[in-house]
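thread from #wetlab-drylab

HS: before we spend reagent money on co-crystallization trials with 5-O-phosphono-beta-D-ribofuranosylamine, can we at least see a predicted complex? here's what I'd submit
DV: go for it
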Amino acid sequence: MLRVGVLVSGGGTNLQAVLNAIDNGEIQNAEVKVVISNNKSAYALERARNRGIDALCISPKEFESRTQFHDELLSRIDEYHLDLIVLAGFLVTIPEAMIQKYRNRIINIHPSLIPSFCGTGYFGLKVHEAALARGVKITGATVHYVDEGTDTGPILLQKAVEVKEGDSPEELQKRVMEEAEWVILPQAIALIAKEQEEKA
Ligand code: GRF
C-alpha cells in the first residue's frame, strides 16, 4: 500500500481528483494518509477532513525562522512514514533536507508543458497569462519529480491542452485543470503505486 502525503495551499481540486481516483479504483493500492497546508483557510484541508484524513496546517508565520518551520514540516511529515509526497499547488519552498530525505519520492503538478512557462515566478494564473502572452496554440500540464531546482526534476507525465481563440487566463486555467491536471496527477500516483506493488 502506497502511503501518500499531499501538500496544498489552495482549493484542493487536484487533491480531490486524487481522492476520487482512489474511490473509483483508477488508483489502486494507495492511501492518502495526511494533507498538509501552509494556509489554514485552504479549502483543501476541508476536503481532507470530509474524507476523515489527517489535515494539518503548518504555517511559516507560526515560527520564529524559516529553519524552524522547515524542521517542523519535515518532522511532522516523517511521522507518517510516507512513500510518496505530492505537491498539489503547495506555494511554499520545501526544505532541501526534505528533498534529500525523500529523493525521487516527491512529485509536483505544474500547469504548463515544462520546460515552457515554469521556474521562479511561474505559478497559478501567471503561468496561463504567460502562455497567452506568448501566443502558444497548445499548453497543458506536467507531473515531475521534485529536485533542488524549481520545476526542474525528471518529467513523469504530460498532457496537452488546446488554447482557444479569445481564452482568458481564467478560462485557460480551468481547461488545463479539467483536461490535464486532474487526469495526469491521479495517473502518476497510480503508476507509482503499481510500481511499488510489483516490487513487493
Ligand atoms: C493548480 O493549478 C496546480 O497546477 C498549481 O496550483 C494549483 C492548485 O490548485 N500547482 P488546487 O489547489 O489543486 O485546486
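DV: The pocket of 5-O-phosphono-beta-D-ribofuranosylamine is lined by residues 8, 10-15, 44, 88-89, 109-111, 124, 177, 181 (CB under 6 Å).
HS: ok that's useful, forwarding to the group
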